[in-house]
Amino acid sequence: MSGYVHPEFGYIDYRPADGESRREKPRLLLHCCCAPCAAGCIERLRELFEVTFYFCNPNITDGSEYEKRLEELKRLGKRFGAETVEGSRGDFFAAVKGLEAEPERGARCAVCFALRLNAAAEAAKGYDYFATTLTLSPLKDARLINEIGLKAAEKFGSVYLRSDFKKGGGALRSKALSEEMKLYRQNYCGCVFSKKRCAEKEETSR
To answer: What CATH number does the domain containing 40 carry?
Structure first.
């Protein structure tokens, strides 16, 4: 069987690249923003792919926060047999210069998505597909993320797997598995702008 049409992910090609022996599953590089979001995706993905976690999040400029999320992702990966690869830290502030005052879910977020997905697309050249856990969040626009992912794939010659991981109980599974494994669950996306907004929201709710 060279491939088949999956109800969620569309056509999945099982044909190996030239010179490779046939593999049981295609290889997927999964860009991960954090362990809880990866937890909502990994179970369904590992049934179909050989999954590698890709942690590339230049938006997390706080060193301790960055390391905490990376270590939790590695812990999740060990449980499910997924290697964790760390990408470049990059320069988030240079990428979003001039967009500091943009609201959440605005132009700054789109630039941030592109920064991370371009890195994933470039890193995915040795894989059959790449995808992102960003579509798991109910606060993020899966349509926009998929558009950016497809453009990144075209730019770097890789193949993007469209997704909307929040569907099919993904968010609920993320919460349940995070509680079971006692994974660190942050209350903001990772950037200083989101962290400030969350702090202001908590302050006004008191």
So the answer is: 3.40.50.620
**pLDDT tens sequence for the chain (206 residues):** 456 567 777 766 655 555 555 567 999 999 999 999 999 999 999 999 999 999 999 999 999 999 999 999 999 999 999 999 999 988 999 999 999 999 989 999 999 999 999 999 999 999 999 999 999 998 899 999 999 999 999 999 999 999 999 988 899 999 999 999 999 998 888 999 998 887 776 667 66
| Total domains in the fold of the chain | 1
Predicted TM-score (pTM) of the model is 0.90
72 inside domain:
yes
Please state, in angstroms and as integers, the Cα–Cα distance from residue 8 to each residue in 11, 43, 57, 138, 198, following that order: 9, 14, 26, 18, 33
b/e sequence 86-125, b meaning 16+ C-beta within 10 Å: ebeebebeebbeeeeeeeeeeebbbbbbbbbbbbbbbbbe
Assess contact for 54 and 120: CB atoms under 8 A: yes
CB atoms within 10 A of CB 39: 29
